[in-house]
Design a protein that fits this description.
GO terms for molecular function: heme binding; molybdopterin cofactor binding; sulfite oxidase activity. The chain is of the alpha+beta class and 424 residues long. Helices cover 13% and strands 27% of the residues. The chain contains seven helices and 21 strands. The chain is elongated and about 75 Å long.
Length: 424
Amino acid sequence: MADTIDQFLAEHTQLSRRYFLKCGVAGATGLTALNQLQAQAPGRDPVLQQAIERLETNLTVPKSFRDVSRGNPKPHTLSEEKRKQVGLTRDTWSLEVISDPEHKARLGNPLTKEKGNALDFETLLKLGEQHAVRFSKVMTCLNIRDPLGTGIWEGVPLREILWLTKPRDNIRRVFFKGYHNDDPKQIFQSSLPIDRVLEDPPGLPPVILCYKLNGQWLTPERGAPVRMLVPESYGFKNVKWLTHVYFSNLFHANDTYAKGNNDIDSTLKTYASTLSFPKEVKPQQPIPITGYAQAGTAGLAKVQVWIQKNGESFPQDDTYFTTAPWVDAEILSAPVADQWGGDLPENRIPSDTIGFDNGTGKPDAWPMPLMKAHWAILLPGLPAGKYTLRCRTIDANGKAQPLPRPFRKSGHVAIEKKDIVVTG
């Protein structure tokens, strides 16, 4: 931590001891008795409040998203002239929506360049005048722990495009791919069952052809001019630089990502990570910890932490530390209307965003599934020694991280651990 934080910690040691006594915490560590109250800012210890005030915003500025794009060269690095030439600008983009040539679906009106009726950007926006939806989503890579960014995504439901093709029958799946430098070896595609396109599971927005992020046109790096957006999925389903959509009678998935031993059906998981904590503290100094929790499709009920002194034994058959003395952290409230971040126009959540009140800009529920929430806790001081800090979530079904889906290839969810040294 910075020197100023260390100084602040030292200055507030006595104040924080009184705070813990007020909360009924006894003993040098007090970890098993700690019950962090869901207090608002005026009731928080100042050292914790200072850590909270340095947290990132809930939404990410589009240019600050982490980029994990594929391609050689990556399509967003092409010159503007080249992007125009290959159809990756709003005025040159078109989308072919056709039958899978190998497992044919029956479409009465496929949208093709050959017929001159491929979907262009202007037509997509006209559809958006009646059908556009907006929703919040954290974008997370299946094989990277930390999210790439969180935003408000806008576009037209894919099902509206399906109806333009006058579908008849033999449609069991849809798969889609983006621009790949005209190199078959670089093709990247993902797929969905057709029922996910036609009907939204309870609580989930539709799959969309997305053209805006945080109220702004997608940039080339974010997949412009149009990308697929699957609300509950990891990043690989959200194909950038969209060029083709195929409706198919194939009975199984054909995602490129499946070739890498990945679980291509996994939805976003619920888990917690730290954002700030002191790596070194003095004996009995309070320990301020902040972090984020990704609320996956199972929702988020609690965030918990546990500090274990190194060398202490623990039952070897308790792989996920279910009997450890976890304590509840505070899940911070949703931001006020103009503090979401993300470089939103007028610093406001766009109107008619699913899950938000149009009048107040407040979320209908918090934490929101498919979003990040921040959390914080001030732990009492510890005796000198070396410790391991862990954090976990409890989802809305009462399942503790890493359950119910602990396996690595379906998304990172291992319990995070960090080292803390209490100097003598």
